[in-house]
Design brief:
Elements (H helix, E strand, L loop, with lengths): L2 H11 L12 H4 L7 H7 L2 H13 L5 H17 L4 E5 L12 E2 L1 E2 L8 E2 L3 H5 E2 L11 H5 L3 E5 L6 E3 L2 E10 L8 H19 L9 E15 H5 L2 H6 L24 H16 L4 E6 L5 E6 L2 E2 H21 L2 E4 L13 E9 L12 H20 L1 H6 L22 E2 L2 H11 L8 H12 L2 H6 L10 E3 L4 E3 L8 H30 L3 H15 L12 H10 L7 H5 L5 H9 L5 H56 L3 H4 L1 H32 L4 H12 L1 H16 L10 H6 L2
Parallel strand pairs: 1-8, 15-16
Antiparallel strand pairs: 1-2, 3-4, 5-6, 6-8, 7-8, 9-11, 9-12, 9-13, 9-14, 10-11, 14-17, 16-17
This protein binds adenosine-5'-diphosphate and magnesium ion.
The site of magnesium ion has 3 residues, from loops.
Family: Belongs to the glutamine synthetase family.
InterPro entries: Gln-synt_C, Gln_synt_N, Gln_synth/guanido_kin_cat_dom, Gln_synth_cat_dom, Gln_synth_gly_rich_site, GS_Type-3, GSIII_N
Protein name: Glutamine synthetase
Length: 729
């Protein structure tokens, strides 16, 4: 009896949407649980408040005494909201967030004088027992421990009854052990380089901020149904299951009316986000059944990354109240679309200018073009590194799977900007005649705002697309921490802007060119050099793969191959030069990601082997026995005529046997491949062995299992089916 499946189905079909009423209008509750400016004004002395603001805006250090005052105010604020504990909240390289709660509550040694305490020391630094976080050998090498340190640029917030203080996580020798540290360094690098370039156009610019607006895609599956599938519980995706007769072919889910249970979940989630200061704005159904998307208003990148990490945690917690499980995996179901997390990215000045948005004057448009073309150039130079930044075992299912960007990195800019670049390519070398300058300003650079207004040709197949006033990095996976992609993107753009500045300055100083002439000259060369990375066609097509190969673009379809770019000499030099990561840090990350890949595939292999042998085969045998019984009965009644009458059953019995044999043989082969892979000592080779020798068995095993699902009596089948997982609402 397949009790678990039917119990789960009964539970799921009896569900009613959980009741939910909004507490107040959004603008009234936004940021209520964040130690933001408003709270600081109320709970901090003006000196302490200024100290935090200076730290955020100018990176000024906060001394111990000031930290004491800030901690005191923060504690009072938290206690006024019923908070009992505090935690340093950080993002180790596990991909999730980490927290260890400590109570504010303290007593004297004899248990007297109970009091709530929280000092500057506890705010600024903590030492979690961090030996179990991935460190890629850093801590072993240096025999140093890790500590967390307050990041005042991301405000503290209250979740439940805990005060969460965003922190970096580093070893005592200074190596980053988390996602945030390199990200902050990359944001610093891009700030410096971009501010320098901005000064060509506006001397008043003092700071450039990278902005990020992520779009989080996810699946909602009924909790009972999800819990009935060991593969979903253990790996976040279905390792087997025959596709349901109806999938997404009718396009009836995308942007459709949101199912009530899901909608009530989203409403409560959005309210939680409001309290936490996460400015979520958009919600809609996505392409696949039970797939949805949530997008915020964009923010400064460090904050946006924190908010996305926090959101993923909050999403799962709120889902429990609505009897849902959220699947963040990039490909939870075969045969329907997977999930991504588009990273919309731009640069903004402290004077309020979006540097990737065309302006009103020819000069501001030249500024736009400088940032636009430099971004393209950065992607062109570092395409394989950008690919490596989004490489994970789960994202491999998505990239190049004819629904998501291919594993080839290219840039889409639209017809009109393609024309603008073509015209700029014709700019004369060296000094420009007054006529040429006027023509450029009036007819090329001056026309940009008009053309962008009708720049509506959106190419959904491009991994990196310009969408009017920002670039959209679409290849990022739905389960990823955006920091990996954002660290890389901001670092390569920083490096490119730095080089651009050098080249322009050289033309001004050595060739005596005017500033705008120098800029036009450098941009012209960049346009010539970067043609290979620009692609406007269908990124899903076979033809593009061939074309891209001719152009010399990399096409790493699997994570182990893609990750190598992380430790290329080019990458090591880049991260070092831009002060984002030293060699040890880069190499540690590379090791960690390889290991994570290997472990993920290893776990999937074990779970698949277990389900195939211990769920699928016994079920198939049970059903086969029923058939055998039936044939035996027919023989008793009809004698020699039975063979004709029981023909179908006999065919089925044989088919079932052959699939059982297939499963056993292939699980055996997979296990052998794992054993061979497990003795490899080199992390790269081991990951490749798992990728090339272990993983290919998954599909073969699955095929037999899925065929059996079609043959076996539905009443007997133990595993919850695709149609049930995807269409129960
Ligand atoms: P879509 O791409 O789905 O059509 P939009 O273009 O409206 O949707 O924006 C998607 C995301 O891009 C949103 O999260 C939005 O906040 C973000 N976004 C818009 N402008 C910027 C910007 N200048 N920098 C970073 N993100 C931005
Ligand atoms: Mg978008």
């Amino acid at each position: 009896m397949s009790t678990l499946r039917f119990q789960a189905l009964k539970e799921a079909s009896n569900r009613r949407p959980s009741k939910f009423e909004e507490a107040d209008r959004k603008s009234n509750i936004f940021g209520a649980n964040v130690f933001n400016d408003k709270a600081m004004k109320q709970f901090l002395t003006s000196d302490a408040h200024k100290g935090v603001k200076d730290a955020v805006q100018h990176g000024t250090k906060i001394d111990r005494k000031l930290a004491d005052y800030i901690a005191m105010g923060m504690k009072e604020w938290a206690l006024s909201k019923g908070v009992t504990h505090y935690t340093h909240w950080f993002q180790p390289l596990t991909g999730t967030t980490a927290e260890k709660h400590d109570a504010f509550f303290e007593t004297s040694y004899d248990g007297s004088d109970p009091v709530e305490k929280f000092g500057g020391g506890q705010l600024v630094q903590q030492e979690p027992d961090a030996s179990s976080f991935p460190n890629g050998g850093i801590r072993n090498t240096f025999e140093a421990r890790g500590y967390t340190a307050w990041d005042p640029t991301s405000p503290a917030f209250i979740f439940g009854t805990t005060l969460c203080i965003p922190t970096v996580f580093i070893s005592y020798t200074g190596e980053a052990l988390d996602y945030k540290t390199p990200l902050l360094r990359a944001l610093n690098a891009v700030d410096e380089a971009a501010t320098d370039v901005c000064k060509y156009f506006d001397k008043n610019v003092k700071k450039v901020t990278a902005t990020l607006g992520w779009e989080q895609e996810y699946f909602l599956v009924d909790m009972a149904l999800a819990n009935s599938r060991p593969d979903i519980i253990m790996t976040g995706r279905t390792l087997l299951g025959h596709t349901s007769a109806k999938g997404q072919q009718l396009d009836d889910h995308y942007f459709g009316s949101i199912p009530t249970r899901a909608l009530n979940y989203m409403r409560e989630l959005e309210q939680e986000c409001m309290y936490l200061g996460i400015p979520v704005k958009t919600r809609h159904n996505e392409v696949a059944p039970n797939q949805f998307e949530l997008a915020p208003i964009f923010e400064e990148t460090n904050l946006a990354v924190d908010h996305n990490s926090l959101l993923m945690d909050v999403m799962q917690k709120v889902a429990e109240r609505h009897d849902f499980k959220v699947l963040f995996h990039e490909k939870p179901f075969k045969g329907v679309n997977g999930s991504g997390k588009h990273n919309n990215w731009s640069l903004a000045t402290d004077t309020g200018v979006n540097l990737l948005s065309p302006g009103k004057t020819p000069m501001s448009n030249l500024q736009f073009l400088s940032f636009f073309i430099n971004t393209i150039k950065a992607v062109d130079t570092y395409e394989s590194l950008l690919r490596a930044a989004i490489a994970t075992a789960s994202n491999d299912h998505r990239l190049g799977a004819n629904e998501a960007p291919p594993a080839i990195i290219s840039v889409f800019i639209g017809q009109q900007l393609t024309k603008v670049l073509a015209e700029l390519e014709g700019v004369s070398t060296g000094k420009l005649s007054p006529e040429e300058k006027t023509d450029l300003k009036l007819n090329v650079v001056g026309k940009i705002p008009d053309v962008l207004l009708d720049n509506t040709d959106r190419n959904r197949t491009s991994p990196f697309a310009f969408t009017g006033n920002k670039f959209e990095f679409r290849a990022v996976g739905s389960s990823a921490n955006c920091a990996n992609a954002m660290t890389t993107l901001n670092t390569i753009v920083a490096k490119q802007l730095k080089d651009f500045k050098k080249e322009v300055d050289a033309l001004i100083d050595e060739k005596g060119l005017k500033k705008d002439e120098a800029i036009f000259n450098v941009l012209r060369e960049y346009i010539k050099q970067t043609k290979n990375i620009l692609f406007e066609g269908d990124g899903y097509s076979e033809a593009w793969e061939q074309e891209a190969a001719k152009r010399g673009l990399s096409n790493f379809k699997t994570t182990p191959l893609a990750l190598k770019a992380k430790v290329s000499q080019q990458a090591l030099d880049l991260f070092k030069e831009m002060n984002v990561m030293n060699h040890v840090e880069v190499e540690a990350r590379y090791e960690i990601e390889l290991e994570e890949y290997t472990k993920k595939i290893q776990i999937e292999g074990r779970v698949l082997g277990d389900i195939a042998r211990n769920h699928v085969i016994p079920t198939a045998i049970r059903y086969q026995n029923t058939l055998i019984e039936n044939v035996r009965g027919l023989k008793e009644i009809f004698g020699s005529d039975f063979e004709n009458i029981a023909k179908e059953q006999i065919v089925l019995i044989k088919e079932i046997s052959s699939h059982i044999e297939g499963i056993n043989r292939k699980v055996e082969a997979m296990t052998e491949a794992r054993k061979t892979a497990n003795v490899i000592t080199d992390a790269q080779e081991m990951a490749e062995a798992y990728c090339d020798d272990v993983k290919p068995h998954f599909e073969e095993i699955r095929e037999h299992c899925d065929k059996l699902e079609l043959l076996v009596d539905d009443e007997t089948w133990t595993l919850t089916k695709y149609r049930e997982l995807l269409f129960t609402r």
